[in-house]
Write a structure and sequence with these properties.
The protein is of the alpha+beta class and about 475 residues long. The protein folds into three domains: about 5-50 and about 270-285, no CATH class; about 55-265, Porin, CATH 2.40.160.20; about 365-475, OmpA-like domain (60s Ribosomal Protein L30, Chain: A, 2-Layer Sandwich), CATH 3.30.1330. Helix content is about 15%, strand content about 30%. It starts with a helix and ends with a strand.
């Protein structure tokens, strides 16, 4: 059986949430499949049956900049910026495809004040500080790209936006230097109530390959301590310069993640629907046979005979999940033969009404509608023959027409309204450019209020061909 048919059958039959990791397993006792009817064949998710990696080790280096303090690293008194250094290493555990937990160790040194503590004080009033710190924290990791991405996007992706937030314990030694020399001002030991701190930020990951990720992060660290900058006790002359009760700093880092495990993909790069297609490619490359339909697919409609309620579907007809040919307007004429798909009509008139009660022109084959790509108002080259036929028909008629634009249900109402209007305007301009009198045409945008398939709300309830059919421009006689 062709691989394309296997993909269609799997996409219809396989759960895409808890059981997606077993979607392509051939039933041999160890991993029950879902290719035969009955819930007894569905295997619950267990750690033994997982098909992806969920552990990794990360490390990176960066530059901390003390920003909210009495002595700062940014725009200090003599106009210089003082750069420290930092490094981190973490053990990362993915809980789901969109959430994980990291145990992280940070070490670094901030430099702040009027001059670098490696240099001599430029004058008697200049003060500088440096702080060596060690920190251990637990961070929550949210993969926004997996959390927010469209579930019907089967294309592979290599970039991911992450968010981090967590708490931990920080130990540090803060030094101060002036014209009299350098001295230790504050020392805080770890694992004490006063050593708690917080950090949060964001990171952008790039997937180099199945083993390696590169990530840039920007974290904001809240120390919870007014003595972190080396200014001395909270009531010292330096620490009275600002009302800050916590010395905080930015930490920009560049790091590397190594994904551990024997499987092909990592859970944080995992898309439940995408996995079906990925596994098929892997098995095909390994020359393994896939048992899709035990009883076959007699009418070749992509639905196995085990579940097909209509075993003699005509070739080319679109079907629902039960293998029944679609009849959108429920007039007894399936969409394949219906000349008026959205308007009920008798069988003897090809599904179109015998008397027109409104501005319906779907009976005119020369005025077919055209479809658009997602988030696009570009007229596709494949649609130009339809539009050229529409030019000839409109020019030969005495009537005028509304050029109606519509969208699917993705996006906001306001965005869809503007997009549908642009689609209608583009089609109208094309017709005028090719000889139609402008007075015969009126462009109307209806957004998502005029769905060809109203059951596609939200869009995830329908296959992509239905959503594409909703993204259209069609014609109405005025």
């Amino acid at each position: 059986m062709k691989l394309s048919l296997a993909i269609v059958a799997l996409a219809l039959a396989i759960p895409t949430a808890s059981y997606a990791q077993d979607s392509t397993a051939v039933s041999k006792g160890e991993y029950p499949n879902t290719f035969s009817s009955g819930s007894a064949n569905v295997s619950p998710f267990t750690n033994q049956s997982k098909r992806f990696n969920d552990w990794s080790i990360s490390a990176g280096v960066g530059v901390p900049l003390l920003q909210s303090a009495d002595l700062t690293s940014i725009k200090n008194g003599n106009g210089k910026n003082l750069f420290g250094y930092s490094a981190y290493v973490s053990i990362d555990k993915a809980i789901t495809h969109a959430f994980g937990i990291n145990l992280q160790y940070d070490r670094g040194e901030t430099r702040q004040g009027w001059f670098n503590t490696k240099d001599a004080a430029p004058d008697a009033k200049a003060v500088a500080g440096r702080t060596q710190y060690d920190a251990i924290s637990i961070l929550g990791d949210i993969n926004f790209s997996n959390l927010l991405r469209r579930v019907d996007n089967h294309s592979p992706y290599r970039w991911a936006l992450h968010g981090y937030a967590g708490v931990g314990t920080i130990a540090y030694r803060a030094y101060q230097k002036d014209a009299t020399g350098q001295r230790l001002m504050t020392e805080v030991k770890p694992f004490k109530l006063g050593s708690l701190f917080m950090q949060a930020g964001t990171g952008l990951k790039f997937k180099v390959n199945r083993r390696i990720d590169i990530e840039g992060r920007l974290m904001y660290v809240v120390t919870g301590d007014d003595t972190f900058d080396g200014g001395g006790d909270p009531y010292s002359e330096i620490n009275r310069r600002s009302s800050q009760v916590s010395d905080n700093f930015f930490n920009a880092t560049l790091g590397l993640s190594v994904k551990l495990g024997k499987h092909e993909s990592h859970l944080m790069w995992h898309d439940p629907l995408q996995e079906i297609y990925y596994k098929l490619d892997v098995l095909a490359n390994k020359n393994q046979d896939i048992e899709v339909c035990k009883k076959g697919d007699a009418d070749n409609d992509g639905v196995c005979d085990d579940w097909d309620r209509q075993l003699d579907t005509p070739a080319g007809a679109r079907v629902d999940g039960a293998g029944v040919a679609l009849d959108t307007d429920l007039d007894g004429v399936i969409d394949l033969y219906d000349k008026c798909v959205t308007v009920p009509g008798p069988v003897e008139n090809n599904g179109c009404p015998t008397t027109t009660t409104g501005p319906v022109v779907e009976t005119e084959t020369k005025l077919e509608g055209i479809e658009f790509d997602l988030n696009s108002d570009r007229i596709l080259p494949s649609n130009t023959p339809i539009l050229n036929n529409a030019v000839n028909y409109i020019n030969s008629s005495n009537g005028s027409y509304n050029v109606v634009g519509a969208t699917d249900t993705r996006g906001t109402d306001a965005y869809n309204q503007k997009l549908s209007q642009r689609r209608a305007n583009n089609v109208k301009n094309y017709l005028i450019k090719n000889g139609v009198q402008s007075g015969k045409l009126n462009a109307v945008g209806k957004g998502e209020k005029d769905l060809k398939y109203p059951e596609c709300e939200p869009a995830t309830k329908c296959p992509e061909w239905k959503n594409r059919a909703n993204r259209r421009v069609y014609f109405e006689a005025k």
